[in-house]
Write a structure and sequence with these properties.
Order of helices and strands: HHHEHEHEHEHEHEEHHHHHEHEHEEHEH
Number of strands: 12
Strand order of the largest sheet: 1-7-6-5-4-2-3
Mean pLDDT: 95
Shape: globular
Strand content: 5-15%
Low-confidence stretches: none
Distance between the termini: 53 Å
Length: about 425
């Protein structure tokens, strides 16, 4: 099936007389007729649900759909995108290990990697993603266990050269983890370019309505965990009956360990209702992303030609330094997020934002409604001036998430707000 059809049909196939729409199974636990069956479930000899922290039918249907959309061997939903980031890294790394990350990533992830993981003994080395391969290689250590980047960085909108990062990772027997939140699988499939694990904050475009928090981890099943660098996958897990994940689960070793070990211990479980709401969003993902991209392109072109705008960053613009990479990795569009600066700096940016009537100032991005945010004073407020520069966040940067309203109305709102700026 084509991806548009998968958005609607994948994950759930009702049998004769069953609900046509994914049902909400609002239960924490499940009944079985024998002690043996329950024991087999705990021993991973049988598949099934016994406690919703690890598996729930509603959540499972949506996981199957997302795995199909990305082309992975399996997926695991989490309570948020940050939980997906944390579980992914902890599933690979332990105290004493190191990871490499592109510096231009979401501020919350920057803090997670640079502060919280540091407290757990995991080092993160932030790098300029535009460095040539030989320069990036200098940051790889014997204890480097993962390389991380965002397809489209939030909020600077840098386009990651996924193939370059995949070459760096695989030449050192390291998995490449890609946050694909802004493009979604409709605009880009990082597995096709060498990524090994994909992460999403499903709260954004996948949900599309700003109603349900969530995250998801998708496993490509292609990375070889048996190189000797990852004993967690090739040696017995004494916390789970001595199971060896690569032997028992093959290509699904990573995602299985994430569920039965990490989710078991951390409990970052998505609610069945949130999974149900997410699925409603996924059914229209392909339609919404087309409109988001069309509207954002027109808004970006309008801003680029407006004398009150100091600069615009949108990879769909021919003037963007990322236009060639966007043409390669994002041929169907560059999502609906634009970053730009208003002439006059931070004060002018705030005046502009406060003057908008339809577009709302919200601490969110990538839903159906047009919204704006000043990252330096909100999502990235906790970072130092030096860290802001490293993340690609200037004091005047405005992040606009262009919605699916009529684009003429969006531009009219921007025009009247700019008229209020001296």
């Amino acid at each position: 099936m084509k991806i548009e059809t998968k958005c609607i049909q994948s994950g759930y196939s009702p049998a004769n007389g069953e609900p046509r729409v994914i049902p909400i199974v609002q239960s924490t636990t499940y009944k079985y007729d024998s002690t043996q069956t329950m024991g087999d479930l705990f021993d991973l000899k049988e598949s099934g649900c016994f406690y919703t922290r690890l598996a729930n039918p509603t959540v499972g249907y949506v996981e199957e759909k997302i795995a199909d959309l990305e082309g992975g061997v399996g997926a695991m939903m989490t309570s948020s995108g940050q939980a997906a980031n944390l579980i992914t890294i902890l599933n690979i790394c332990h105290s004493g290990d190191s990871i490499i990350s592109a510096s231009t990533i979401y501020g919350g992830t920057f803090n997670l990697f640079g502060v919280t993981l540091k407290k757990l003994g995991i080092e993160c080395i932030f790098v300029d993603a535009e460095l040539p391969l030989d320069e990036l290689q200098k940051f790889v250590k014997p204890n480097t266990k993962a390389i991380f980047g965002e397809t489209l960085s939030n909020p600077s909108l840098d386009v990651l050269d996924i193939e370059k990062f995949a070459q760096l990772a695989h030449s050192n027997n390291i998995p490449l983890v890609i946050d694909n939140t802004f493009p979604t699988p409709f605009l880009c499939n990082p597995f096709e370019y060498g990524a090994d694990i994909i992460i999403h904050s499903t709260s954004k475009y996948m949900d599309g309505h700003a109603t349900a928090l969530g995250g998801v981890i998708v496993d490509s099943g292609k990375f070889d965990w048996t190189s000797g660098k990852f004993p967690e996958f090739t040696e017995p897990d004494e916390s789970y009956h001595g199971v060896v994940y690569t032997e028992s689960f093959g290509k699904a070793a990573f995602i299985t360990k994430a569920r039965v070990q990490m989710m078991r211990d951390l409990g970052s479980t998505p609610a069945p209702m949130n999974a149900f709401l997410l699925n409603l969003g996924l059914e229209t993902l392909h339609l919404r992303m087309e409109r988001h991209c069309q509207n954002a392109q027109k808004v970006a072109e309008f801003l680029e030609n407006n004398p009150k705008i100091a600069w615009v960053n949108y990879p769909g613009l021919k003037s963007s330094k990322y236009h060639d990479l966007a043409s390669k990795y994002l041929p169907k569009g560059c999502s609906g997020v634009i970053s730009f600066g208003v002439a006059g700096g931070k004060a002018a940016a705030i005046k502009f934002m406060d003057s908008l009537k339809m577009a709302a100032i919200v601490c969110h991005v990538a839903d159906a409604r047009t919204s704006v945010l000043h990252p330096a004073s909100s999502t990235h407020r906790q970072l130092t001036d030096e860290q802001l520069v490293e993340c690609g966040v200037s004091p005047d940067l405005i992040r606009m998430s262009v919605g699916i309203e009529n684009v003429d109305d969006i531009i009219a709102d921007i025009t009247q707000a700019l008229a209020c700026v001296d």
